[in-house]
Amino acid sequence: MDSRRVWRWARRVIGVGALLALAVAGAIFLLRPVQVAVMSAARRDIALAIQGVGTVEAKVAVRIAAKITGRLVSVAVDQGDRVRVGQVLATLDSAELQAQVVQAEASVQRGHLAVAAQEVGLRKARANIQSAEAAVARLHATESLARVNAERWQQLHRDGGVARVEMDIRVTEATVASEDLRAAEAQRRAAQEELAVTQAVLATLRQEVRVAEAALAAARARQTDTEIRSPLDGIVVSRELEPGATVSPGTGILKVADPRTAWMTV
Predict the structure, then answer these.
(1) Is the pTM value of this prediction over 0.70?
(2) Structural domains in the chain?
(3) What residues contact residue 202 under an 8 Å CB cut-off, 6+ apart?
(4) Which of 111, 135, 199, 238 could make a disulfide contact with 255, Cβ separation 3.0–4.6 Å?
């Protein structure tokens, strides 16, 4: 009996000791020093983050369209591609426009040749006028001298100093000189009229060259319009047509957006 009692007391003491040991261990665990991370203070920006469901759009989005009617032969970019300003995005068939450019170039060349030929004619007309002026001046002097001689020989004949035959010779010479002068003056007027006509034709030809050059510039501009270029730096957000399609002015081919102007609608 006494041994069992002792054993019971021993177990109670051991249990109480175990509880005390657990209590002490718990107190040590709870009261242990807290580990603290130490950092230096610094200034920095805090990024504002907002979470939500919405649609991302770009304020600057351009629909790329053709300026002329034509057949689309190539599209050089696809959706998601980055493009630079001035980059060729699509190309139209340019065979017919190239033929128009060649024809316009030939017209300009013919016009320049015609102007050059007419300028040669203008120089000739001016030379003819100078020649006619010189002839008129020379014949005017000859006619004046012949007329004075004829008048003097007529007076001598009236005074009985010369025979009538000699007087008639001088009068005939004066008459011929007068006719030659009138013919030279007529040639001078014809040369002046020819010069005026030549100048008018030359002015018309030069105007035709300017018209031909304007037509050539327009043909080249239309040919340039077969290359459709990007008006801005951006990203292709949609590709609406494929090669082989026929486009008209304003027909959308691609859509390019500037990602720098992106915003979200929530």
Answers:
(1) no
(2) 94-225 (1.10.287.620)
(3) 115, 118, 119, 121, 122
(4) 238
